[in-house]
Please model this.
Amino acid sequence: MSFNGGSIHTAKVDIDPTDASGILLQALQEGLPIVERPYAKIADQLGWTEQRVIDELESLSKSDRVRRMGIIVKHRALGFTANAMVVWDIPDDEVDAVAERMAEDNCVTLCYQRPRRLPQWPYNLFCMIHGQERDQVLGRLDQLVENLSLQQYAHQPLFSTRCFKQCGGRYFRTPKNGTADIGVIKSEASKVEVSSMDIADINSKSVAMGGAHV
Amino acid sequence: MYQLNEQERQLLNLYQRQLPIQERPYATMAEACGMSESEVIDCLSRWQESGVISRIGAVVNHQKVGASTLAALAVPEDEIQAVAEQVNGFAEVNHNYEREHFFNLWFVLAAPSQQRIDEVLEEIELTTGLPLLNLPMVKAHHLDLGFAL
Model:
């Protein structure tokens, strides 16, 4: 039983495990080594020069085939245990404009349009709102509805209750480990206490992100 | 209990997007955060070990290369653990969350090609025998660019 009318979005280019970028992505899928010269270590594994690894990575970034390269944080472990995927049913001729404004809101960390699957799934816009507590996330959602005057549109926050898996994309099977990070991560089990300074202002997003630009 | 200090918080806020691509990236990061290179390496290793961070990684843009989708299953409450494990068994699944809805198991798949995504979705439907929603991205308005702490 399926409600899906096929794929709407198809990427232009497959990842080819035999070309340089595919080989490098494969080498990186378990993460960059945390050693003084990580690119040299990757180079050793591949039989490349360190410079070739650096050049290929720069090319992947500049061409936007790699969207970001950096520390991948587990927000749950840092105390952001309330995370809601909010789904919205917005008329087709308004969804672009609404999504643009939604994406600008400081409480929103992701904002994607996806297809409806009627009658089971009427929602065409998705955003993520993270917080330390459920009430805080619901408060931000109320504020978002008010800021964007979205009262008349159906929407629902889908809070996550358990995390069964969080890892990076694994494009190729590796003999040593295809299943890192598997297992139930209970909200409280891995919770790390974050000082009030850290949690003070999620709205510093633009500042924090701006600082990461080069 | 672990507590992020100001330098560590800065390290996390500054380097979720753009790791220096140069011979000694951790030395550059250390300098920006008022730490030593070995402190940064110790810190990141410790966080990776304890699950504060998932890894130092490259996030692929699937609008350019490869393919991905968001999918959901409606799972009877008492079967969710078992079905989640079945879904996790596919290497292409990289996030898998239980959420409060009739469609209660939500997971993200990534693969080198759309063909592989379609194969995995079909296998998941067959294996679980449950109704599946396939919700590929139509348009991104705000990408995953990291998380302010």
